[in-house]
Backbone:
């Protein structure tokens, strides 16, 4: 009986205030999808870091006029360097040109315009710890016969910087939308409490328990939070289908794939967050609104 | 049953206390009028007994429980032992007489079966037999107050508090409501009524506690308004 009473109060409350309920659900949905997207992006960045930083190389380009002695000295130093993963790959001008031809086979003009000896000879070195790049650069940068040292992880860091910024943007949007959603929840609960003020007064008078008085309002808020979260989940699934696997699939070779399991894992998380924060907001609003 | 022990209540920003060192003791089954002019502190007593407010000093004991020391989560179950009637009836306008009384039962967890058994009985008792399905706006003031009395009494409370219950009623109707409260009192329910209706007090000839400027100035067993 009591459950039936509370549920019917919740439904009546949501329906009486249907525009407000809708606004609440929409803002909640936007906020939670932003939050979900930012969490997925966060995990994604981590797996991409693991994936790429494992593969980054430091390229030590050699001058054209390097002497065989200088080259031998460099090679032996590299092969005994504790910072460097063995073996060290030596790329001759010839190999560099073949690789270049391979990479740019779609642009024959460019290949034709490049002479075989235009590309520098290099050592491709993987570091045991990619963060140690500066020590390596300092050690080898001043040696004779070395043209330039290029750290791929610098490039990667730029990519991750962009991804990180996107993640932060999503998070900021989530926070502000979330704030708006919570204010709407608070307002809706106040309106609901006001429209039921007579009932609330009588209930307090005849000794209805606090949880019984507050439950319909809190459930009303939680309901909106859960519906918002479900819409956000649908938006994330749509995002995976149409964005990640759709228009961005061209980048699939660059971005590591976003597995479905990661999306599915987000659903219970954002539903729980949506239900919890809106329920708590509703309850806190009531504490201020219906004293004792 | 009810004891005020040196109770002082000063509202914030008020120049003088609403109740000033008031002590009074009410036994089980008593019928007591609290009288006095507006602003004398009569209604403060009702609020204290319901634990809507806390005294600034002193103790309030209701149904052998010190309500001043009561934890806030116990207030709801405490209030189930007390019935309450007000000048403005406080009925739910979108519910019938029956539903108004049943609502009070349902929200404290009684089943609809209990309501179906008890509500017609209590509506009959207050003289509303046959009008169970009228809405408040279809009832006269006196009848609305009877619904309120039925709601207050349906739980068979130990104590019935009435805050100017006849304040909105004409003299004849007021007398009928008083007869009803008298009948409830005869079932053993302690009745505390705040009023400034001298007619009523003079006719009933019950205990009268007079308050003036927050002080108890008279406590008479079979008093008149004076």
Residues:
């Amino acid at each position: 009986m009591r459950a039936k009473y509370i549920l019917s109060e919740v439904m009546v409350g949501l329906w009486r205030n249907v525009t407000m309920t809708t606004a609440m659900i929409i803002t909640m949905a936007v906020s939670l999808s932003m939050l979900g997207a930012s969490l997925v992006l966060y995990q994604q960045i981590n797996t991409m870091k693991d994936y790429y930083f494992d593969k980054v190389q430091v390229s030590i380009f050699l001058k054209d006029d390097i002497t065989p002695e200088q080259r031998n000295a460099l090679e032996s130093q590299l092969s005994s360097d504790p910072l460097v993963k063995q073996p060290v790959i030596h790329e001759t001008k010839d190999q560099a040109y073949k690789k270049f031809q391979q990479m740019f086979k779609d642009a024959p003009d460019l290949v034709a315009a490049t002479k075989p000896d235009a590309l520098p000879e290099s050592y491709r070195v993987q570091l045991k710890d990619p963060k140690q790049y500066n020590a390596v650069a300092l050690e080898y940068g001043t040696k004779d016969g070395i043209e330039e040292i290029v750290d791929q992880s610098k490039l990667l860091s730029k990519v991750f910087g962009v991804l990180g910024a996107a993640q932060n943007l999503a998070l900021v949007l989530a926070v502000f939308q979330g704030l708006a959603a919570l204010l709407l929840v608070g307002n809706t609960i106040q309106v609901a409490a006001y429209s039921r003020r007579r009932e609330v007064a009588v209930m307090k008078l005849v000794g209805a328990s606090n949880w019984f008085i507050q439950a319909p309002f809190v459930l009303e808020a939680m309901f909106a939070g859960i519906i918002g979260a479900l819409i956000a989940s649908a938006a994330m699934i749509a995002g995976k289908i149409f964005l990640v696997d759709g228009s961005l699939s061209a980048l699939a070779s660059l971005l590591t794939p976003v597995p479905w399991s990661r999306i599915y894992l987000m659903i219970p998380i954002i539903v729980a967050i949506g239900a919890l924060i809106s329920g708590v907001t509703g309850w806190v609003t009531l504490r201020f609104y219906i004293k004792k | 049953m009810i004891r005020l022990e040196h109770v002082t209540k000063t509202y914030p920003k008020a120049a003088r206390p609403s109740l000033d060192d008031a002590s009074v003791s009410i036994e089980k089954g008593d019928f007591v009028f609290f009288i006095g002019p507006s602003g004398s502190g009569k209604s403060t007593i009702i609020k204290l007994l319901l634990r809507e407010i806390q005294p600034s000093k002193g103790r309030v004991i209701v149904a052998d429980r010190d309500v001043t020391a009561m934890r806030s989560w116990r207030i709801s179950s405490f209030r189930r032992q007390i019935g309450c009637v007000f000048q403005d009836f406080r009925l739910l306008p979108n519910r019938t007489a029956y539903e108004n009384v049943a609502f009070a039962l349902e929200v404290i967890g009684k089943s609809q079966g209990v309501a179906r058994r008890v509500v017609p009985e209590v509506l009959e008792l207050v003289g509303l037999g046959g009008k169970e399905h009228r809405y408040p706006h279809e009832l006269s003031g006196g009848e609305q107050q009877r619904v309120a009395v039925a709601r207050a009494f349906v739980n068979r409370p130990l104590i019935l508090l009435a805050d100017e219950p006849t304040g909105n009623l004409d003299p004849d109707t007021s007398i009928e409501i008083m007869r009803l409260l008298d009948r409830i009192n005869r079932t053993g329910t302690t009745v505390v009524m705040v009023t400034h209706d001298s007619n009523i007090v003079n006719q009933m000839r019950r205990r009268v506690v007079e308050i003036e400027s927050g002080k108890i100035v008279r406590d008479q067993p079979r008093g008149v308004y004076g």
User: Anything to note?
Assistant: Chain A has two domains: 2-52+157-289, 64-144. Residues 214 and 286 of chain A are 7 Å apart (CA to CA). Strands of chain A lie at 58-62, 84-91, 122-127, 146-151. Chain A touches chain B through 18 residues (CB under 8 Å).
